Amino acid sequence: MNSKNMLSEKLKPLRVVNNYKFRFYRTLANDVQRWVCCKKTCNAAIKYDVNGTICEQNTTHNHEPDDLQSILRQKVSNSAKRKAVEQFSERPSKIIHSEMSSTALSVLDSNDISLIRKNIHTTRMNIYPKLPRDFPQLHATLPDVINKIQTKNNEKWIFINDVQNNIVCFTTQINLDFLKQCDSIFMDGTFSSCPFPFKQLFVIHGFKNSSYIPLFFSLLPSKCHNAYKTVLDHLKNHLCDYIPNRVFSDFEQAIHTAIKDVWPTTNLKACRFHLGQAWFRKMQSLGLAKPYMKPGEMSEYLKLFFGLPFLRPDEVDDCFVTDIMALLPPNNSKLTAFTDYILEVYVREDSRYPPSLWAECSSSITRTTNACESFHSKLNSMFYHSHPNIFIFIDALNEIQTNGYLKMNCTKNSRVNKKSIEKEHFLAQQIQYYEEGEINRLEFLKSISFKFIPTKF
Fold it and tell me: Per the database record, which ranges form the MULE transposase domain (predicted)?
C-alpha cells in the first residue's frame, strides 16, 4: 500500500494512501489512531498502532482518488507555506526549490509553481496587520504592535515612535549599554530595504575589539539635516552622558552638520570607502573609468589619488600640488577636470570636505564604513524585493538583532582576521619607512595607493 505524509491547507498532518487523503480523527484505546478520509461523505478509515503500522482499515471510497499532480501541488504548496512562516525573509523561489522532489519536478508545471508562489505570499500577508498607506495610519498601528514585538532576549524592540517627526527607532537597552562601551561609532544609510512610507534606513554601528555591531536602527522620512539631528537627539537622550570619541560617516553634509550639532566635541571623520566611491563616480562621469581599469600610465596616475587619505591632513595640499600635479600628463582635459574637482572639493582647507575630515597618517584600517555596507548588503538579501512590507522588515531587523546579541558576546574574545593584520602591518611599515626618510613622499604614496586601491565601488 502506497502511503505518504503531507500537510493540509491549514498545515495539519495528512496521510495519502493510494492517492486518497486521510486526516487524523482521534486517538482510541491503546493509543491507536483513527484516520478518516478527507471527504466528509466518505466512510473510508484507517487505524494505526503506536508503531505507525496499519492494524485495521476500510479503504472502500465513494469517490475517485485525487490525481498525482494535485496531490504533489498541495504537498509542495503547504510545506512551502509552513516554511514561509518560519523563514519569513527567505525568497519564495528558494523555498519552493527546497520543497521540490524529483517526482514533483517531473509532474508539476509553471502554472502550479505560480499558484504555490501566490499561496506563499497570501500566507505571509495573513500574519501581519493591514499595511499602512501613510504616516498617520502607521503611527496609529504601531502602539498595538510595540508591546507585542520583542527580541529573542525578551527586550522591547520598537524603542521610539516619534509621531511628530515621522521617525521610528529600533534598539534595546542591552544595545545602548554596549554602545556606551564603544570608543568609535559608524553611521550609514540604505534605501532599497527601507519600507514605505519611509525614505531611508539609518543605522548606527558600535566598534569594539575589531568588531562592528549594528546597535541602533532608524526609519527616516527624508535625508535632511532635521531628520538626522532628531534621531541623534533621541539617541543622546537614551545614552545619558555618553559622548563618542570618534564618529565615522559617509560624505553627506546633512549628517556631518547633525553630528556636530548633537556632539560638538566629537571627532568627526569621513569613511575611506565612501571617499573612494565618490572619486570613482567622478572618474566615470568624466569618461576615466576605462583608463583607470586598463594598465598603463593614466591608470597609475589615477591610482595615486587613493594614497592621499593615508597622509597627515597638513601634508595633503602640498603633496597634491608638488607631487601629483607635477606628474599630470599634458593636454588631457579629462584628467585636468578630475584634478580640479579633487582640489576644489577635497584638498583645500576651505573646501566642502577638507583633508582634516578624511586624511590620517595611521596604520589603523578601521576608518571605513565598509563593514556597514556589508551589513546593508546582507539586509537587502533578506527581502525578495525592494521596499518590503514594514512588518516583514521589522521581523527581519529582529532576526539581525538576534545575531547582534551573539556578536556582542564574541567581542570579549574577538580576533582580528589575518588579512587585516597583514594590511595594518604593511601600512605601519610603510609609514615608518616614510617618517625615517627611507622612502620619499611620492614613493610612500605609490606603495600605499597600489595596496589599498578600492576593488569595489
Answer: 185-275
Closest CA to 357 of 365, 366, 367, 343: 367
**What tens-digit pLDDT sequence spans the chain (457 residues)?**
566 888 888 878 899 998 999 999 999 988 899 999 999 999 999 999 988 888 889 989 999 998 888 888 888 888 888 888 777 667 777 888 888 877 777 888 888 888 888 888 788 777 777 778 899 988 888 887 777 788 888 898 899 999 999 999 999 999 999 999 998 999 988 888 899 999 999 999 998 887 889 999 999 999 999 999 999 999 999 998 899 999 999 889 999 999 999 999 999 998 888 888 899 999 999 999 999 989 888 999 999 999 999 999 999 999 999 999 999 988 899 999 999 999 999 999 889 999 999 998 876 655 554 566 677 777 877 776 788 888 888 888 888 898 889 888 887 766 666 777 788 888 889 888 988 899 999 999 998 887 767 655 4
Please list the helix, strand and coil fractions of the chain in percent, rounded to the nearest 5, in that order. Answer: 50, 15, 35
Is the separation of the CB atoms in 420 and 212 below 8 Å? no
> What long-range pairs does 200-207 form, CB within 8 A, spacing at least 24?
200/227, 201/379, 202/228, 202/231, 203/372, 203/375, 203/376, 204/179, 204/235, 205/369, 205/371, 205/372, 205/375, 206/178, 206/179, 206/181, 206/182, 207/182, 207/183, 207/366
Rounded distance between C-alpha atoms, residue 3 and residue 17, angstroms = 4
Backbone angles phi, psi at 334, to 5 degrees: -70, -45
Question: Are 388 and 291 within 8 A, CB to CB?
Answer: no
Q: How far apart are CA 444 and CA 431, in angstroms?
A: 8
Are the CB atoms for 452 and 307 separated by under 8 Å? yes
Helix axes 110-127, 68-86, angle to 10 degrees: 30
Q: Evaluate the CA torsion angle 290, 357, 219, 377 in order and state its sign.
A: positive
H or E stretch including 213?
strand 211-220
SS3 54: strand
Give the SS3 label for residue 248: strand
Quote the CA–CA distance of 336 and 284 in Å, as a whole number. 14
Domain 135-270 carries which CATH code?
Answer: 3.30.420
Cell triple for residue 17?
Answer: 494512501
Check if the beta carbon of residue 244 is closer than 8 Å to that of residue 266. yes
Please give the model's pTM, rounded to 2 decimal places.
0.75
Residue 367 CA to its chain's centroid (Å): 20
